[in-house]
Write a structure and sequence with these properties.
Number of domains of chain B: 3
Helix content of chain B: 25-40%
Radius of gyration of chain A: 21 Å
Number of domains of chain A: 1
Number of strands of chain A: 4
Radius of gyration of chain B: 26 Å
Distance between the termini of chain B: 33 Å
CATH class of the largest domain in chain B: Alpha Beta
Oligomer: heterodimer
Shape of chain A: globular
Order of helices and strands of chain A: HHHHHHEHEEHHHHEHHH
CATH class of chain A: Mainly Alpha
Shape of chain B: elongated
Structural class of chain A: mainly alpha
Structural class of chain B: alpha/beta
CATH superfamily of the largest domain in chain B: P-loop containing nucleotide triphosphate hydrolases
Largest sheet of chain A: 2 strands, antiparallel
Strand order of the largest sheet of chain A: 1-4
Strand order of the largest sheet of chain B: 6-7-8-3-9-10
Distance between the termini of chain A: 26 Å
Strand content of chain B: 25-35%
Amino acid sequence: MTSMLKILSRPFVAKSSGDLARLGVIVALAGLILFGALRYDNFLSPFNILSFLRYNSMFALIALGMAFVIITGGIDLSVGGVAAMASVVAAYLSPYGWFPGLAGGMAAGLIAGSINGIIITRMRIQPFIATLAMMLAAYGTALLLANNQSVSVSYDTGFTTIGQDDFLGFPIPAWIAVLAYVLGWVFLERHPAGRHVLAIGDGEATANLMGLKVEKTLFAVYALSGLLAGLAGVILASQFGAGQPTEGVGWELFAIASVVVGGTLLTGGSGSVGATLAGALLLAMVFNILNFENGLGWISLSAYWQSVIRGAFLLIVVVLQAKLMNKTEAN
Amino acid sequence: MLLSMQDISKAFSGVAALRSASLTIAEGEVMALVGQNGAGKSTLIKILTGAYQRDSGLIRFVGEDVVFSTPAQSQAKGIATIYQEINLAPQRSVAENIYLSREPKTRLGLLDRRAMREGAAAVLKTFNLDIDVDLPVVRFSAATRQMIAIARAVTQKARLVIMDEPTSSLDEREVSILFETIRTLKKNGVAVLFIGHRLDELYEICDRITIMRDGQTVAQSSMREMPKMELVRHMLGKELAAFEAIARDAGNDETKPVRLSVEGVGSGVRVRDVSLTVREGEISGLAGLLGAGRTETARIIFGVDRLEKGSISIDRKERSYTEPADAIADGIGLVSEDRKIDGIIPDMSIRENMTLALLPKLKKAGIVDRARQQEIVARYIKALGVKCASPDQPIKELSGGNQQKVLLARWLCTDPRILIIDEPTRGIDIGAKAEILKLLRSLADEGLSVLMISSELEELLAAADRVTILSDGRSVAVLKRNELSETALLSAMAHQVN
């Protein structure tokens, strides 16, 4: 009996593909930083680092929301539109104070995300379709509210502090993103509800049979994604001094790419908050390095190249993931 | 009594699935639940767990009347179910799977990971299983995963664990480990409802047995007082007075030429070694308990599943088809077991359903020759006595017996040499059953070779010229017509299960 159990209880040797991909993104990020530091004089200068963090915090925030959505096996295409709409709402409210601006933008995002959640869980509409519709609706709302032009924010109420100022020598948007990621990490790794998000991505029917509250959890995940997109919109308006109804195009793709590059499977059930941050930083770093390369004056690559390079990155990661998956299954 | 289900009835859109079924289980008892496909086992279980709602009847569990409207409610009361495809979250760790939805928490409301790890390891240890509970469950074998699911049930303080065919994906060694686990559960006063069809396993592990047939409980007794013969008889049952034997040609069946000969055929684990013959103009029966490999054998002959070993010959020429289209071209037809899944196309008309297999031959300049199609359809509706308003009526509006006739016609109009028919009278009322069997008989008399797969004793006795009995993927006996009797069939099925 005992010898039988030994054979029985021996685990299969396969290492999960997610772990390898997560390790890969960190190695790639370190490699890019090293490359930049060696090649460009001011790459590690405080100015570059701070402006890099200030600008990319918005993207990091929507990538965090997207990570939770993708872990459940879903997708949220509406984040760019929601961010644009939230930036307009925040700009309109900014004359009443920084807090109404912040809260209003986040509320707009939360409402949009909650509608996504209701449509997906109650009406059983595919997340792809539901959030695509929300993307169009949010852009439309943003343009309607803003009369098809950007909406200046008030510079008198401290609203611009959110996006432009530093706290303890570190950009406020970066503080917000760091706080969000720490909370996100604790939630996913240490809170029961976070584990339920993972279990639902592993199989909804099974999770349901195990007594998990599938619908509530899914609703919360889409609401959270909307909330974070709203927060990104507030930072956008505050940083650039205007609500931007036409911004946010392609943000959802940047977010999805960050999550996937971070080793989260599009099929759901696995994923990491830390690796998502690494993925977002990696993709942003590509753009940063491109700027420096242009600065050297030898070549002149247009900004369009960043899309090409990001696309290539994404493709490589997805192909590698698929290969690793096959290998895992073969084992 | 821990559980008592009395007079449970349930109908799905007017068709009775359960008719006054009952089931009782005592504490710490292992109860076997057996029955053929469609006997109502799974409906009964789903009503117990709250996945379905009963139409009438009474359920008492731990001394109180209960109504479960969701699986979560029955779980909370102490009924755990371990499904055939074990329901765990594959990428989550062993410990998480054991505690999911009831995680131990720290004062901060976060996971108490140490308590989870230690609790999981401790409960697994009671089953002599010492594994790293931090690894995802996907990395363990089916048997280990099953034990993890059982451990989950134990930590839920389950009083009753339902196991739906728990041994179907286990090898012998793993089965003995599972049984050890069941004995441990028993020792702790947990009752087990064991759904299975391998008789030896039932005798080894179960205390009592409940046998279902046609939505009713036909027998309940202690396992020891239920001889195998009796068990099989209850399971296959006697439905009304057997049909009058359908007139057959006397005597000379062994002299007719062999049309289909299957020798030592195997494929995968379901079919290991099957041999059978069908002569010209005879109905050859294929019998066996659930899971014996009957349908799978038909699939191999028809070219759906790959022939891995053995040989198939038709009219003395060796044949092996890679796809059904080849088999059809060679004059073989297959009427499948489940009309709804792979037989009829419900919204299409009788005419279209009937001529589906014939369409390639009905083409004239690339389009369907409508006039010929209508002529053929009219002919078969008349010949087989299909009761319908018009050939253009959607097939879903017909009764089961008439749908079956249309499917038969579908193959007959391709003029086959061999017709394989799987459970020809399933879900058909008794009058129509005899009619279908007579129809098969008259087709055989005209020279067609019929391979009839059947779970119904009367059907085999009434219509078959010979019966091959399968058990666990092997042909274990052949009964010729003069040897055919209820006793002979039952003993061949019961005793060869060893």
